[in-house]
Fold this protein.
Amino acid sequence: MAKKEKIIDFNSGWDLAPAPESTSHIRLKKKYDLYIGGKWVKPSSGKYFDTINPATEEKIAEVAEADAKDIDKAVKAAKKAYDEVWSKLSGKERGKYIYRIARIMQERARELAVIESIDGGKPIRESRDIDVPLAANHFFYYAGWADKLEYAFPNRKVKPYGVAGQITPWNFPLLMVAWKIAPALACGNTVVLKPAETTPLTAIKLAEICEQAGLPAGVVNIVTGAGSTGAEIVNHKNVDKVAFTGSTGVGKIIQRAIAGTGKKATLELGGKAANIIFEDAPLDQAVEGVINGIFFNQGHVCCAGSRLFIQESVYDKVMRKLKDRMESLVVGDPLDKNTDIGAINSKEQLNTINKYLKIGKEEGADIYQPSCNIPKKGYWCKPTLFYNLAQSSKITQEEIFGPVLAIQTFRTVSEVIAKANNTPYGLSAGVWTDKGSKIFNMTSQMRAGVVWANTYNKFDPASPFGGYKESGFGREGGLHGLSAYLKFD
Ligand code: NAP
Ligand code: MG
């Protein structure tokens, strides 16, 4: 095992000058209503809930809580818009609206990025460079397909479902909304969407953008609320298709709820991805990929590379490089452009992560956290490694959804394939090696929807994304993402 590990002392003179993003250009109201039938309407219960900034614990705004009556109103508005307007428009005309939404998102990109970081805690560098541009790209990409569905599926007659009920999580609030709304509209469906309770603001901003784009009333309806609001959407009789991204637990509830109803579903659920480093890999790049794989978005990523497998012969070297690199990570203010790891999305999620940190220690694993400072107020978790742990340990098996990496070793290819596939999930995986043949062998044997080779967390609207096993079914992105919103004769 390891000789004494040398840790670079980044604490001497490593402090970076603050580089805060300005917030003076964003406009937020104190209170937001529901966006139904092209109008902002008050919730029938009169109830509102707070959305807070997880980095400061301060309230940002109040948001309406939709109940069964509001959902009924929203689904009726979507059905009316489908019957009377959207289903009658040509693909070319639908495409124009979707392009317009994409362009306005680009124009308002800075505002969207800042609001995303304030509401959810993610570093501004990520919301600015990844979430918002990718979200706009999804609209651009699907706008292009709207008038080409007959080429997408040659010799097949395709029809939209009608009203799509869509439910999104808090980790990529705007991006998940884009993954859902863009293909639904391109295929001719109308939408009722509920964003997650802790991060509703960019979905509300998207409703404003739909308004600005002149989208016909009722084509997109944004209803905020808690899990019970989501359940009302799933169970409404006039919702023809359910698209859900979230936890495996809620995915199972939804599948049970729609069984026998004839409703179609796409479920994008949890994951516990294997990131595998072979001894012949370019180790510096691999370590960078591991850091990105688990610490991107505080580890609140369904496809996070949360299980690392290191070939035994390079274990000591990789561990030293990993620890050195972690010393240089900046944890703190999401609005500072130097920040690598922002705030944990909510107190509830921080409690969940802390519960797993405790379990890991109790299970006897070794733990490593860098010496970084974290702010006093807000919800924070230092980036964490667990190593010398068992395949059966909870830390290895369960999705933590935080900046916590479980590290194991392996000797042979067959051993690592068996270990990597030993999980109820199957969303993604990463392979680091110099050998192309090894990559092909691995990618064909990993039971995962996406396998990255010598890179990690790369997304493109043209590329389908989705899971095996308890990670769900159906694909979002690419042609596959279109077929999820179409009936085939
Ligand atoms: P979650 O609790 O399942 O919530 C997801 C969404 O469903 C939220 O909008 C939530 O509302 C709503 N919801 C809760 N209970 C519901 C019910 N009974 N019926 C209908 N809707 C309901 O998941 P989360 O904790 O927000 O998100 C984290 C999970 O999502 C992780 O497991 C992660 O792996 C997964 N995820 C998967 C992907 C993917 O593409 N595969 C992407 C991102 C995240 P509230 O916000 O009010 O609770
Ligand atoms: Mg919030």
